[in-house]
Amino acid sequence: MAGTSGTAIRSVVALIVSVAVDISLFYASGCFVSLGAFGRLACVWLFAALRCLAPCVVTRLCLGRLKPNLIRFTVTHGLLPAVFESGSRALHHQETQCALAADARCWLMCAGASLAAALFWEITIPDKDGEAADKDTRQRSRELFVRVLLLYKPHYHLLLGGLLFLSLAVIFDTFIPFYTGKIIDILGQHYQATEFLSAVLFMAMYSIGSSVSAGCRGGFLLCAISAFTCRIKVKVFGALTKQEIAFFEKVKTGEITSRLSKDTDLMAKTVCLNVNVMLRTLIKTLGVIYFMLNLSWKLTFLVLMEVPITGLIQNIYNTHYQRLTLAIQDTMALASDAVNEAVSGIRVVRSFNAEKHEARRYDDRLMDIIALKSSRDTVRTIYLLIYRLTGLSMQVLMLYYGRLFIQNGQMTTGNLVSFILYQSELGYCIRGLVANFGNMMNSVGAAGKVFEFLDREPLITTAGKLRPDQLRGHVSFQRLNFAYPSCPNKTVLQDFSLELRPGQMTALVGPSGEGKTTCVSLLERLYEPQEGEILLDNEPLKSYDHRFLHQKIALVNQDPVLFSGSIRDNIAYGLSHCSMDEIQEAARKANAHDFILKLKEGYNTELGEGDGLLSKSERQRIAIARALVRQPQVLILDEITSCLDAESEHKVQQSLANSPNQTLLVIAHRLKTIERADQIVVVMEGRVQEQGTHQELMDRKGSYYKLKEEIFSKEDASEAN
After folding, report:
1. 559/654 Cα distance (integer angstroms)
2. Cα 35 to the chain's mean position, in Å?
3. What torsion, rounded to 10 degrees, do the Cα atoms 437, 442, 443, 448 define?
């Protein structure tokens, strides 16, 4: 505590002494200039150098060190009067009052301008060690912006057209205040009809040109946004569909849909809207400053003192606003996820009487969004209040000095009106530049989330190229060890080995949760085992072409998913060339052809979300047809017979019997289905517990025998009832 107090006292002493020394040198420079000693300009620069050096020496003696921001402030504060005096003499051959007779107003004006510049520098270009993360964030934002710009390459012709008309609109718009002031001067002095009509004509031409160019600019850029948004959404969706199943287990549906819909829209606006506004504002700012300098360079320098203050306020506002905006985006994604979960599981919600619970959960998400939006709006309210007070104060000062210049004959009334209009435009432009930079950072933040999906490499590669002309369908599981990525500490398969031979039916049996469905998922390459590998005809699965592999290995789940579209589209799902004869033949094998023809539209019957039009058995048969139309070499049936009636099951089995070289893997709980298997594999605790035919396993009276007594007998008894 004592050390901290001592440092604070030394800092206060250093400040007081530095201010006293600086004021003394400032007044001394005024006296020397008045006396004409050493030449006025040389004297001004000599004392400027002393004013830069003296505070630094005092600070070093009192505190023992100098900070970079203090050095910048001191140099700016000391050199500002000399720079102002030199510029005034070089451009206008006049001497400023600060050089001729230094007073407190000049010192305060220079100190205020220097302090504002120092604060603006500190906020925008910090040099603290603790700001390294912010610098990395800015660098990351710049990189993301360049990536978005490169993605716009197919639409550069639209962007260039928009840029051309943007420039024309700004140039035309900048001339309007100038002719407004000119018209006022013509009306207020000796009225001449020719000059008046000429000024009105030029003003009308510039107004029309500005309006037409602005409309064309908007048309070009909106077309670019629409085309880019469509293209980037397709790219993101394509990248998502290539991800492994574990990705969708970790990332919730609400977040995915939010990134795909909202963030891609924000990303599209990064270049077109934000850069459009930024370029327009920048060009207009330069034009406005040019006209202001022509009207009154003194008032222009006065107005430009507002720039660092406005920039500082805007930068602080952007930091808080961007943080809250990103938090709102994340919370909205959580709210969307809550809705998706409730809607997709509405039957479970209704069954457990959880409607109020889901409503409260959604309400909590909305309350979080409201709280964040309230904070964001509060920040915006405070910002608007401060920036309007700043602008109002500057306008008061400008009007005060403008009146003095008119009285001295340095300006006309029309020039002052034009200058006021330009000053209003300048304030708007400067605030717009900084605000648009913040908006761009927000949209770039959204682009970063989109690029996370685009850049993510799936953990399961699909780079295989093997497409053999003949495939026997011999499958070999070799010493697999596997745990799901969501539960890496829970091993599901341990040292699992198994062979599936062509022309044979292999049945996996065992209690639920012991690894049967996991074997199917690994054979489908939905996951990769941590150890071991699966061979197909003595080649690893990853060596095969992705499309070829999933055409030769087909799966039918116990809860099949049908997509919106016709029944025909669902059967031919994923096949680019599939004739109607092939679709009908597959439907006959699955015993689905007859009930499909009874539907009003037949194979063209549209299925909606959830396909409530069909019974579970009918959906199951369409799913079987979808697998059979591919003529797979390896067919996997996961608990499908539980949904089929006896006739359908018999016809499906007959169809499978007609494919003697096909490898068939079945997971079933019906004893009569399992009894016909060439090989029965009992899977327990992630291992192959027993293996053999039905009779061989019954004779052993081991695990399979117990399962038959405990599980299969109950299943058959329930069916009989």
Report:
1. 22
2. 65
3. 120
Report CA-CA distances (Å) from 207 to 200, 212, 276, 418: 10, 9, 20, 16
State the pairing for strand pair 553-556/505-509: unpaired
Residue 721, SS3 per DSSP: coil
Count of Cβ atoms closer than 10 Å to residue 155 Cβ: 21
Say if residues 369 and 332 touch (Cβ distance below 8 Å): yes
Classify residue 644 by its DSSP letter: S
DSSP 539: E
Q: Give strand ranges (E) for 275-426.
A: none
CA distance 220 to 273: 11
Quick check: 703 and 676 in contact, CB under 8 A?
A: no
pLDDT of residue 246: 81
Task: Identify whether the C-beta of residue 183 lies closer than 8 Å to the C-beta of residue 414.
Answer: yes
Chain-centre distance for alpha carbon 87: 47
> Could you give the angle at which helices 193-241 and 413-455 cross, rounded to 10 degrees?
10
Q: What is the chain's mean pLDDT, rounded?
A: 78
pLDDT for residue 715 is more than 70 = no
668-672 average pLDDT score:
70
Selection from 104, 98, 212 nearest residue 165 by Cα: 212
At residue 309, what is the residue type? Answer: I
Q: What is the pLDDT of residues 365-393, one digit of tens each?
A: 899 889 888 888 888 888 888 878 887 88
DSSP H or E segment with residue 505: strand 505-509
Residue 106's SS3 state is helix
